[in-house]
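Re: [ENG-882] Designed sequences occasionally contain unexpected residues at chain ends

Forwarding the minimal case from QA. C-alpha cells:
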C-alpha cells in the first residue's frame, strides 16, 4: 500500500496542489491531510483565521479524488480539521477521534492562542490484513516547536490509545508541530519507528516556510509494518512537504 501525508497549508497554493493530487491519485491508496476547511465561508463565525486559505478544500479534493472515500474529522466546529481519503474498496472496520488538547477559550484573534487538537484514527482492512491509521495535527505554541507540558501530554494520550490495540499494525502520520529531538517525539518512539529520524531527513518544510525549525511532519510505523520506501516528495504545494511511504504488512 502507498500513503501520502500532507499539511495542505489550508489550500493556499490551489493550482499546484490540484496538479499534485491529479498526478498521484492513480498510485496512492491513502491520503492523510491536515489543515482542511469544510465549506468555510466569510459569513461563518471566525473559528479559525484562514489568512487566504481555500474554504472549500475538502470538497475540491473530493472532486479530484473521485475513486476515494472522504473521511473528515472536524476540529473547530464543523468548518476546520483533518481528513483521510481512502481508495474505494478499502474496508473501514472502525473509526473515531481522540482529543489531544482542549481550549474552550480559544480566540482566533489572539496570536498566541491555539484551538483544540485531535487525532483522527481509522482501523482499515484490505484483503486479510488490517491496519490502524492515525492522522494528527499537533498542538501549536507561539514559542516554537520544543517540548511543553501540553505537547508531552499529547504524546502520552497517543500512547495510551495505542496500548488499547497492542497487536494491530499501526501508522501514525501528520504535522506534529514538534522538533525532531524533543521528549515528546521520544515518547512516541517507545511504540514506533520514526522514519524521519531513521532516514536522516533534514527538513519537512518547503521554501514557503520562513521559520528556523525544519521539522514538523512525521511518519511513525509499528514493527509489523514493512517499509518498502519512504521519502519526502519534491512537490512544492504547501509550506510543508508531502511525505510518502510504500509499505506492506507482515
Amino acid at each position: 500500500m502507498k500513503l501520502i501525508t500532507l499539511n495542505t497549508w489550508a489550500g493556499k497554493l490551489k493550482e499546484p496542489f490540484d496538479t499534485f493530487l491529479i498526478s498521484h491519485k492513480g498510485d496512492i491508496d491513502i491520503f492523510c491531510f491536515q489543515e482542511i476547511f469544510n465549506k468555510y465561508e466569510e459569513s461563518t463565525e471566525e473559528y479559525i483565521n484562514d489568512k487566504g486559505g481555500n474554504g472549500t478544500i475538502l470538497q475540491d479534493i473530493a472532486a479530484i479524488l473521485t475513486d476515494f472515500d472522504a473521511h473528515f474529522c472536524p476540529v473547530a466546529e464543523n468548518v476546520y480539521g483533518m481528513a483521510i481519503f481512502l481508495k474505494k474498496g478499502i474496508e473501514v472496520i472502525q473509526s473515531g477521534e481522540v482529543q489531544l488538547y482542549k481550549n474552550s477559550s480559544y480566540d482566533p484573534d489572539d496570536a498566541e492562542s491555539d484551538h483544540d487538537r485531535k487525532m483522527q484514527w481509522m482501523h482499515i482492512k484490505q484483503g486479510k490484513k488490517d491496519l490502524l491509521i492515525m492522522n494528527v495535527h499537533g498542538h501549536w505554541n507561539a514559542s516554537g516547536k520544543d517540548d511543553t507540558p501540553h505537547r508531552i501530554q499529547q504524546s502520552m494520550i497517543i500512547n495510551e490509545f495505542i496500548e488499547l490495540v497492542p497487536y494491530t499494525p499501526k501508522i501514525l502520520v501528520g504535522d506534529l508541530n514538534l522538533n525532531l529531538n524533543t521528549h515528546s517525539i521520544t515518547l512516541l518512539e517507545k511504540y514506533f519507528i520514526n522514519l524521519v529520524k531513521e532516514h536522516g531527513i533534514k527538513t519537512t518544510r518547503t521554501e514557503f516556510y520562513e521559520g528556523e525549525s525544519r521539522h514538523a511532519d512525521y511518519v511513525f510505523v509499528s514493527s509489523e509494518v514493512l517499509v518498502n520506501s519512504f521519502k519526502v516528495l519534491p512537490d512544492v504545494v504547501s509550506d510543508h512537504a508531502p511525505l510518502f511511504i510504500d509499505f506492506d504488512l507482515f
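QA comment: On inspection the terminal residues look reasonable. The first strand starts at residue 2 and ends at 7. Proposing we downgrade this to a documentation issue.
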